[in-house]
Design brief:
- This protein starts with a strand and ends in a 17-residue tail after the last strand.
- It has one domain: 2-Layer Sandwich (Alpha-Beta Plaits).
- It is elongated and about 60 Å long.
- It has helices at about 15-20, 70-80, and strands at about 1-10, 30-35, 40-45, 50-55, 55-65, 90-95.
- By secondary structure, the chain is an alpha+beta fold.
- Strand 3 (about 40-45) and strand 4 (about 50-55) form a beta hairpin.
- It contains two helices and six strands; from the N terminus they run βαββββαβ.
Length: about 110
């Protein structure tokens, strides 16, 4: 079992969800987050004053999958989250081992709980 964490652009969320659904990945957790990487923020003008926004809004997806679903899940995210303009800021995908999963409602454990 693996935990896939993806940080993506907010405007790509619906596209990523649609692609995951096509791949038969139906369970995910979505969180609004802020951060920065190579972009290091951006400069904006508000009422004539210039200011720097250091933390940019992103969306964090967390998806627990059995091992056979890792590649299809990652491929779906890669296909749908990329902007295609070659600029930085499309996001990251991180894959971590998942030691145990327990479904609270039934007490099921492991692959059956995912």
């Amino acid at each position: 079992m693996k935990l896939i964490v993806a940080i993506i652009q907010p405007h790509k969320l619906e596209e990523v969800k649609a692609e995951l659904t096509k791949t038969e990945i139906y369970r995910l957790t979505v969180s609004d987050v802020q951060g920065y990487g190579q972009q290091k923020g951006k400069t904006e003008v508000f009422r004539g004053h210039e200011y720097t926004v250091n933390l940019l809004r992103k969306v964090r997806l967390e998806i627990a999958v059995n091992d056979e679903f890792v590649k299809p899940t990652v491929d779906a995210i890669l296909k749908s989250a990329k902007n295609g303009d070659g600029a930085v800021g499309d996001g990251k995908i991180m894959i971590m081992p998942l030691e145990e999963v327990i479904r609270i409602r039934t007490g099921e454990r492991g692959k059956a709980a995912v």
